[in-house]
Design brief:
3-stranded antiparallel beta sheet, about 130 residues, 2 domains, alpha+beta
Length: about 130
């Protein structure tokens, strides 16, 4: 999973926009909740529209007393396939890097390699390099 810092960079530096959908995960960008990862699901957290704004509504009592939060107050934590989709035709391959410290390299069509110990973070670094 990518870090909160990488999620912030994808939004602020690369301008990656998010259209919330079932199965997506996010964090609330507040110090007390930044360690909690939420998932959009029709059962617990669902996307609602109110006055042309997306809200993430919390159903039931599973998420404390939180009712809803504006989508622009959260950070999207994209999955590997979502990051790969952002790369589009620039993505060439993903390589496992064996060695003392194992990791993954995302190779782009321009020959650049973006390495991290986590595959999703390697993809995020590649997205930041091209957007």
């Amino acid at each position: 999973m990518i870090t909160v810092e990488l999620a912030r960079a994808l939004l602020r530096e690369a301008g990656v926009l998010w259209e919330p959908a079932a199965g997506d995960r996010f964090v609330i960008d507040a110090e007390l909740l930044s360690g909690e990862v939420f998932w959009i699901s029709d059962l617990t957290v669902e996307v609602q529209t109110y006055r042309d704004h997306s809200l993430l509504g919390f159903n039931g009592t599973t998420e404390w007393a939180l009712d809803s939060v504006a989508a622009d107050e959260v950070l999207w934590i994209p999955w590997e396939h979502q990051l790969r989709a952002l790369l589009g035709d620039r993505f060439a391959s993903m390589e496992r890097m064996p060695g003392e410290i194992e990791g993954y390299a995302v190779v782009l069509t321009d020959g650049s390699r973006h390495v991290d110990v986590d595959p999703e973070r390697a993809y995020a670094h590649a997205v930041l390099a091209v957007l």
